Amino acid sequence: MKAFCFDVFGTVVDWRAGIAREAADFFSEYDLTGIDPYEFADSWRNLYQPAMEACRSGKRPFTRLDILHRENLGIVLGNYGVNTAGLSPDALERLNSAWHRLDPWPDVVGGLTRLKQHSIIAPASNGNIALMVNMAKRAHIPWDAILGAEVTQAYKPSPPAYTRMVEILGLSPKEVCMVAAHNNDLHAARLCGLSTAFVPRKTEHGTNQITDLEPSENWDIVARDFNHLADLVVKN
Amino acid sequence: MKAFCFDVFGTVVDWRAGIAREAADFFSEYDLTGIDPYEFADSWRNLYQPAMEACRSGKRPFTRLDILHRENLGIVLGNYGVNTAGLSPDALERLNSAWHRLDPWPDVVGGLTRLKQHSIIAPASNGNIALMVNMAKRAHIPWDAILGAEVTQAYKPSPPAYTRMVEILGLSPKEVCMVAAHNNDLHAARLCGLSTAFVPRKTEHGTNQITDLEPSENWDIVARDFNHLADLVVKN
């Protein structure tokens, strides 16, 4: 395996805690009471798949995630009864860019730093390039390149999101390992011939999470976290 | 300036010496005598602009540089009277990938490592993503992202090569500084509103070089090399 390509939201960063943190600050600043910030994070995230599906299905052209997030932010605030017309565009833009300021899980930077000595490491995220670059600069995530939806112009789990990435890297599918905490992402990658590595993130959706606690197929690698992934790969 | 985007061939790496080195090995392996490897490097490089011009003009769709280089390699070997049918595809592919193994000028890694603490740093090269990633891995060039022609689907000096890069970074044009040893690259970037930095590479074309020895316009920054560039930027 010459390259490891990573799902990011959930696998590399704890999006739920990060969004809840910045949402709480936003609610406090604008005296918006009675909205649970974690529930708000979940509600915002729930609009993510339908928004991408519009692009995947061809109903709209490929549109970068910052724009989809911004549209969804207006919808979710409206659903909570917030009058967004009374909020400054800058404040909404600032909250939208909270996705650029998510923190990695504690094992990420150490594990990736070791893996980078061995292989190409890159995000294969549905997040756009600026989002990934800003996140990596802030959190010192040592990517070799920023790949993903904006480069392939396709949202996972569409096959071109994987096949174009392999072609861009100039490698064979087996030489590229998709790393994710989500079995469905790995399933789609495997159908395109990629290698697969599962790293569970059992609190991505909070302490009551019931999905993706275990591997659903015999993935090529199953690691406890990114340090364990580096142990398994660098040893081989 | 929040991001510095770099021309690569000539500005970051010494393509002429690198190609000559691997060409000399190739000629030796196949007993091809009487071809000067530096002249060969120049001849191969001379086919670079016409090949990209076919894409820029719309005569052919955007095609990544590894493919254009490979086509041009066949042409230039033919021009030297080499019968490429007698050579293995693997050997030709290996020589073609010499562009992935070019060495940076001595000031590059130190200067970029300091600049990276201050700003986003990325290649804005006509080279494709795999070429840039492999080059950076081998030479330890610490890019934050790989931008350039394959991401923007446009070859410099076409305006979209600059404007799409600025948009992808989510910045204003002035916040993005194009760094190049070539005045024409900076001229095109300035027309798109980008900031500009000139770093001369007076032996890119050998010791008798007569082009790009001096800045041709009042670029925003003129630095002696990448260490000096880091001095000027990190101080400000």
TrEMBL record, chains A, B:
Does the UniProt entry include the keyword Hydrolase?
yes
Tell me the function of this protein.
Answer: Catalyzes the hydrolytic dehalogenation of small (S)-2-haloalkanoic acids to yield the corresponding (R)-2-hydroxyalkanoic acids.
Query: What's the EC number here?
Result: 3.8.1.2
Q: From the UniProt record, which GO molecular function terms apply?
A: (S)-2-haloacid dehalogenase activity
What keywords sit in the KW lines?
A: Hydrolase
* NCBIfam families for the chain: HAD-SF-IA-v2 (TIGR01493), HAD_type_II (TIGR01428)
Protein name in UniProt:
(S)-2-haloacid dehalogenase
| InterPro entries according to UniProt | 2-HAD, HAD-like_sf, HAD-SF_hydro_IA, HAD_sf, PGP-like_dom2, S-2-haloacid_dehalogenase
Q: Which organism is it from?
A: Pollutimonas subterranea
User: What's its catalytic activity?
Assistant: an (S)-2-haloacid + H2O = a (2R)-2-hydroxycarboxylate + a halide anion + H(+)
Q: Which family does it belong to?
A: Belongs to the HAD-like hydrolase superfamily. S-2-haloalkanoic acid dehalogenase family.
